[in-house]
Amino acid sequence: MPEGQRARPQPTPETMHFWEGTRAGELRLQRCNSCDKTYFPPRPFCPACASRDVGVFRATGKGRLYSYVIHHRPVPGFTPPYAIAVVELDEGPRMMTNIVDCPQTPEALVLDMLLEVAFEKIDDEITLPLFRPAKGQGDKGAAR
Amino acid sequence: MKPKSIAIVGAAETTELGRIPNLSQIGLHADAALNAMKDAGLGPKDIDGVATAGETPVTIAHYLGITPKWVDGTAVGGCSFMIHVRHAAAALESGLCKTVLITHGESGRSGVARSRPAVSPGSLAGQFELPYGPMGPPTLFTIPVLRYMKTYGITEEQLATVAVVQREWAAKNPRATFHDPITVEDVLGSRMIAYPFRLLMCCLVTDGGGALILTTADRAKDFPQKPVYLLGTGESVETPMVSQMEDFTSSRAFRVAGAKAFDEAGITHKDVDHLMIYDAFAHLPIYGLEDLGFCKRGEAAAFIGERHTAPGGKLPLNTNGGGLSYMHSGMYGMYALQESVRQMRGIAPAQVPGAKLSVCHGVGGMFAASGTIIMTNEGP
Question: Containing domain of residue B62, as a range?
């Protein structure tokens, strides 16, 4: 087990829907009702057109490995080496995450491999959206 | 800004660089400021504008005994000092003040009274980046690079070559931290920090400081040193979260700041004799060369590999050895500016013969901010 605990996010009024979503097993994104822009991280207005008329929807939780580093030094809550990754969601936005159920090696972590969300409960309030290789995909991953 | 309307008339680094345990953060600011005032033949009563980052302008003005009529505390990371130069030029040109002092000091290695920015757990980075285990710039600044490498087919050897070439420049500089030549194999064999980044692809962590003094061009000839004139300036910001960069293969802030500076200066890339690109990590010169327009997208690594930026090449780059081999206290932008000034004064340890025009490009945060300053030693 890694020593210490990973940094814990502190939800704010503007991001509460996201953390309520992960707690319920949903990855929630926002979309502008005026210009149709899908965006992340959460905010109560559209970053493309500034409209306040925005909605929350459940994303598919699917995406691809966009980029990453494999960190080799200790950080509370992590056992090095571990990957700090960015996933590009099928809906368009990118988010930072960790990749689970996968060796933390350059050979196993192939850019553009298909990923799916894997929720990890930290405590009663916080569940983090991590990602794992999508089911039905070989060890090496497969570019679309 | 009107080209050549503003000049740098004082420039100095701290007396020592590297390991300075006998000076705190503010002490490093002051040591550099006193050296710059001596360089310009000025005292604190002659300064009426103060800009700084790391410390506040209040702290610096009070500590040095300055009564400013203009201050700027823009703190957007390592390129804050490029942006201070730009803001100071605007203030001087519009008559808000007459003589500006810009200071930097950072006890990056010894950590004596060092102020460090904290990420709140409720900020967007605190909620959507920090929980995934990043630990500072080596794990964040580096995240876009695998995408760049896949997009353009760049190899780890090419990334390592950036550090090898900059060590060649550092070898010519007595004040550089590292002088011994290194090979691509040395770089790839050094300790893994955050794949694909090895230790020798990451900047140094040292103590130091630097300061600049600026005034209007009409007064510049009255100072003891050869004036260095501002030709063009640019600045921009993009995102506080590297995961939210628009394009992982290019910095929007670089493109906006660089294009603005070149436009103001009215120059083309062929006019550039000397170039500084803030190199916190080995990929920064690659992104910088492309985003400033010196190379097409995907071609900068080959450009460096072909030795165009090395000693004897057509575009001397990071001639002090850079953040990788000269020094890096944390906010390196001031040292890039100092090297551009030395090159324009003709006194750099690795002087580019006959250099008349220098481009100095900085980054702040993890591709969060950028500032570009173009200087010349040819007067109005």
Answer: 6-113+204-376
Residue B366 falls inside a structural domain: yes
- How far are the Cα atoms of A102, A130, B366 from residue B128, in angstroms, in the given order? 22, 11, 15
Residue B243 included in any domain: yes
Rounded alpha-carbon distances, angstroms, from residue B326 to B17, B168, B296, B319: 9, 11, 28, 9
Omega before residue A129 within 30° of 0, cis: no
Query: Residue B372 maps to which CATH number?
Result: 3.40.47.10
Q: Which helix (H) or strand (E) holds B188?
A: helix B184-189
Residue of B nearest to A85 (CA): B143
Q: Are B106 and B267 in contact (CB under 8 A)?
A: no
Q: Do A7 and B144 touch (CB under 8 A)?
A: no
Kindly determine whether residue A69 and residue B195, on different chains, have CB atoms separated by under 8 Å.
yes
List, for residues B163-187, the tens digit of each pLDDT value. 999 999 999 999 999 999 999 999 9
| Residue B212 falls inside a structural domain | yes
* Residue B197 Cα distances to A98, B71, B288, angstroms: 18, 39, 18
- Separation in Å, CA B90 to CA B74, B85, B133, B215: 14, 9, 41, 11
Q: Residues B187-238: pLDDT tens digits?
A: 999 999 999 999 999 999 999 999 999 999 999 999 999 999 999 999 999 9
What helix, strand, coil percent values describe chain A, rounded to 5? 5, 35, 60
B362: amino acid identity, one letter = G
pLDDT at A143 over 60: no
Q: For chain B, what is the domain count?
A: 1
Quote the ipTM score.
0.96
**Closest-CA residue to B284 (of B192, B163, B157, B173):** B163
Q: How far apart are alpha carbons A92 and B317 in whole angstroms?
A: 37
CA A88 to CA B243: how far, in whole Å?
A: 10
Residue numbers in A near B144 (CB within 8 A):
67
Does residue B123 lie in a domain region?
Answer: no
Domain boundaries, chain A: 16-133
Q: Judge: A9–B130 Cβ closer than 8 Å, yes or no.
A: yes
Give the model's pLDDT for residue A137.
59
What mean pLDDT value characterizes chain B? 97
The verdict on a CB contact (< 8 Å) between A128 and B241 is no
Q: State pTM to two decimals.
A: 0.97
Written as one letter, the residue type at A56 is V
DSSP assignment string, B72-138: E----STTHHHHHHHHHHHHHHTTS-SEEEEEEEEETTT-TT-------TTSHHHHHTGGG---SHH
| Orientation angle between helical segments B252-265 and B284-291, nearest 10 degrees | 50
